Amino acid sequence: MLTAGIASGDANSSGQLLASLQQTGLVGAVKQWDIPADKLPDGSEAVPDVVLLDLGRDPAPYFAFGAHLRRLRPAICLIACSSVSPPNQQLLLDAMRSGVQDIIGKPAAPESLKQVLDRLYREGAPKEQQASKKLIVVMGAKGGVGATTVAVNLGVHLTMHSRRPTVLLDFARPLGNAHLFLDLHPRFGIRDVMDNLDRLDTHFFGGLLTEHKSKLQLLGGAQHPEEWQNISATPLERVVNVAHTSFDMILMDIGSQCSSDWTPVLQSARMILLVTEANVPSLWMLERRLLALTGFGVDPGRIRLIINRWHKGDDEILKSVEKNIKSPIMASIPNDFRRASTAQNLGTPMIQNHSDVLGNRYRQLASQLAGGEAVQQVEKRSGFGGLFAAKR
Fold first, then answer.
1. Are 115 and 144 in contact (CB under 8 A)?
2. Are 181 and 344 in contact (CB under 8 A)?
3. Closest by alpha carbon to 160, among 81, 228, 208, 213?
4. What is the Cα–Cα distance from 221 to 45, expressed in whole angstroms?
5. 217, 219, 226, 257: which one has the fewest Cβ atoms less than 10 Å from its Cβ?
6. What's the pLDDT tens digit per position in 146-180?
7. Cis before residue 36, ω within 30 degrees of 0?
8. How far is CA 28 from the centre of its chain?
9. Which residues share a beta bridge with 170?
10. Taking residues 239-258, what's their average pLDDT?
11. Which residues contact 279 (CB under 8 A, 6 or more apart)?
C-alpha cells in the first residue's frame, strides 16, 4: 500500500480527493495539508509516497509546496489536480519545474486516479530497486559483537580493493565511534545533517564527510547520547537518498539498537549484515533479532549472518544455527584477539599484507559484496572458517 498526501486550500475539493484516493484501493494512510501552509514540513515528518496538489486559482504556492516536499524526499510522486482543462503552456512549465509528474482534471474520478497511481508506481519501482542495491546495513545481534569493526573494515576494503566509491554512515546509538577505528577526527557528523536538512544536497553532504587515507568517506556519528532524542528515522532515509547520487556503495552502521521507526530504511536495503558470535547470549539475541526484522517487514532473503571471532570448535553449534534459522552463514571471521585489539587501539584497519588472515577475510567478503566473482576458499567447505556464497 502507498502512503499519500493532499495539499489543498478547499475543504470540499480536498474531501472529494480523499474519497477518490481511498476508492482506488492502492493507498493506506493519507496526510492532509492546508495551503497556504502556516509551517512547512521538516525532516522529522514522514513524507508520503504520493502527494496530490489540489491547485487553486493561484497555483504558485502549491507548486512551491510540492518542490519543498521533493527536497525532503526526492523519490516522491507529485500529481497536480487542476480545473483548467486542458492545462495551458505556462501551467505545464511551472508544474515541470516543481517536479510534478502528472496533471489530472478536477473532480478526479477514482478510476482515472487509479490509472495514474498504477503507472507512476510501475515507473518508479525500477529506480527504487536500483537505488537499494547500494545500501548495506550492518547490525549487531547484541552490543559488543564487533558490528562496527566489520563495518569499518568492509568499508576500507570496498574502497581500496573493489575500487567502489564508498561512504560509511555512522548511525550507531547511543554513540558513534567508527572514527576511532580509522584514527579520524571528524569536524562534522549526524548532528550537523539534522541541523541543516533544508540545505542538504550532494554538495553540502560531501562537505560534512571525513576522508580516510583509503578514500573511504565517513559521516561521523553522535558524540553525545542526548543527540538521538531529537532524531527520527525519517530524515536519515533522506540522508541515504542523497548519498545514493554520489557513491556506489553505502554502508550504514546502526549498532545493535533498532526500532520499528527504522522500517523504511531496513526495507530499502539491498542487504542487512547481522553480526553475531557463537556464544549463548549472542545466539539467543540473534533469534530475537531475526524475529524482529521479520516483524518489520524485512525480506528474510536480504539478511546475511556474519559470525565474528570464530573458533574451529564453533562448527557444530553453527551447523545447528543454520538448520534452525533455515539460512546459511555468509562468512565467519576468525578470532585473532591480539591482531584485532592492536588494530582497534591504533585506528588502523586490517589491510597490512596478504599473510594477514583477518585482512584477507575482509577482502574476500568485500569482493563478494561488490559483486565480484566468488573467491576460492582457503579452507575446506565443511569448515565455517571459509567464506560461504551469499544468496543473490
1. no
2. yes
3. 213
4. 21
5. 226
6. 999 999 999 999 998 778 899 999 999 888 999 99
7. yes
8. 22
9. 253
10. 88
11. none
